[in-house]
Amino acid sequence: MFLLEKRVLIRVLIFCMLLSLTPFIGVLNHASAATTLYVSPQENNDYLINPGKGWIVYSNFANANSAVWEKASVGYARFNWKDIHIGDNSFNWTPIDNMYNAAVTKGKKFAFGVMPVQVNSSSSYTSMPQWVIDAGAQYYYASDAPSTKVPVWNDPVFISKMGQFITALKDRYNGDPHIEFIDARTFGNWGEWHLGGLGGTDPGDAVKRQYIDQWSGFDQTHIIVPISGGTGMYAGGYGYYARDTYGFGAREDSSDYSPRWQKALSFLNIGPAVGEWSFPYEKLKLGQGWTGEIWYDGMVPGQINGSKYSYQPLGEWNGTDANTFLSEKGNLVDEWQNKMGYWFKMTEAAYHSDLGNGTTGSLNFKMRNDGVAPIYMKGNTGVVKVALLDSSNQVLATSTLSGVNPFDWKPGQTVTNSTYFSFTYNANATKLALGVFSKASKPEPDIKLGINNGTSSNWYVLSEMPSKPAPTPVVPAAGQVLWLKADSITGLNSGDNVSTFADSSGSSNHAVQNTSTKRPKYYANVVNGKAVLRFDGIDDYMSMGSPASLNLQNNTTIFTVAKSQGASIKGIYGRGEAMRISSSDTVPRFLVRNTSHTTKTVSGTVYSGTWNALGGTYSNSDGNLNFYKNGAWVGTDYLGGQIRNVSPDDQPNTIGAYMAWHTGDQKYIDYFFQGDIAEVIIYNRVLTVNERQDVFSYLSNKYGL
After folding, report:
1. Taking the model in full, what pTM does it have?
2. Beta strands of 576-623 (E only): which ranges?
3. Percent share of the chain, pLDDT over 70
4. Burial level of 223, CB count in 10 A (0-12/13-18/19+)?
5. Where would I find the beta strands (DSSP E) of 470-520?
6. 536 neighbors 565 (Cβ within 8 angstroms)
7. Which pLDDT does position 665 carry in this prediction?
8. 3-class SS at 540?
């Protein structure tokens, strides 16, 4: 009786164990059945309000009508220093906060600047704070407004008190999510870094650089430096210094004036450019601006394309000017809202049908920037995430895509992005979506794309986009110096030894093994119906020798397709101590050694018993080696210098092993690979992102990776 009860108990326990494993078994079966789906997002020209760009409403917010605010991204105002900094370490923030609240209440970001002095005419002027003068600051009277007190610009008291004010600004507004940018208006009339209307003596470059240093604490909010007409844009000038030292952006006053259309261009890819017209639109129509130019519609595309502006004024100072401009030139507003700054459009995507739901999923997508500039997020905080959605588009889980940075999507370019992600299994998941965030901490994507299939919370549902046939990738021929592919071998039966592995690149770098006992074996129909070479992990390898075409010293790209069955890291391809791709059944590795005998290695992970396409690049121009697995970026490291040179009798190019140094200054072929190798491709250059992805796509399609 006891034996029967024991058997029943054992069966119940086994049943419970199997029952508990059912979700995991289901996931594994789901993963094994996953196929790659290809979609073609449909573009649109919807008017997009996005962070870090757009039309600006200038001052007098109450005068701008609702139609203007609907089109605008930012409200901007300027203030007088003396009205805010009312005493030593004493501040009246009310004027700024009132305008801040007015913009935020309308759902817009706020930007501002604070002017040390301003002189428009003898009847419209503002002096520096009197208390700063009382504290000992030197001053002089403005040339165009004799009663206006202007600081002596290199006076230490003035510099100290201005620094006190900027520190207080930082403490109050740095990192505020509603602040778009702050102008650094430390010097000159209206804080425009010139002495027009003021007279006086320029303090010199060293002092101006000191002014710039005072703004360095703003590590979370963009600082914009006025460069009126290119002021300070030379070696040692404050403009170059602000750009190169702190990554500040630029403001070009009178950006409508054609000689100034390209003055802010040198800030491209560093900081945002802000345009400001010389006069309101209504004045420019009549040619009443200081430049004398009469408004014509080409001013808008001319300046946006010329300086790659991220921001443009929606009219100028009195508020009602914005109403007039929108009413008369609404076509320009609509056309250039998306084109100024960045305008991202996903053009194609490929993902696994299992959505990465309970598995490791892969995603390849191309993003094109149809704008004139990159996205500028202070601290380069932009990220891309994928999300699992249910049938009602509710977000069930999100995963940040490693190695994908929206700042890399430069204007006029289409960038291929490849990455892995995974989700804990969720039975309610039916859709995969992608979202772009200005900051990872944002609860929802805040960057809209110029494509269809977006949800109300700015997720773009990949699984609802039009499908497309799998592309036929082209393996680039330029610079190819080795192409070994097992499926090109003819005349052998499975199990036969391989003495010669022909190079299909046209470089005649054939791999050979003259010793019959060290030859790998050929096997047909092993991986996705394709042939492989099987290496025994004992002494099998093949050599291409040391031809000049494989003695790559400056730039290279390497691809291998292999499956390791050994617990130790062994050579798939090697050029001795100079360069190699190797792998165990769980750890792949890319190594490069330079002529100074410095070695850098990047490692990753693979799943035991799986086939993987590994890729490595090295560029002497930037000194970086990068490692990829199945198209996704694994990691990078800086080496620098040329790849170690090898002489014809030293460390040959090999597959299935590599030559290494051993104790006693001995070198010989070792680290024999145990497993299968299907393909090896080598280039004498670093492939472009799209070319590299084409090769990975070719390998993925060919071998079912």
Report:
1. 0.74
2. 579-583, 588-593, 599-603, 612-619
3. 93
4. buried
5. 480-485, 500-501, 511-512
6. no
7. 56
8. coil
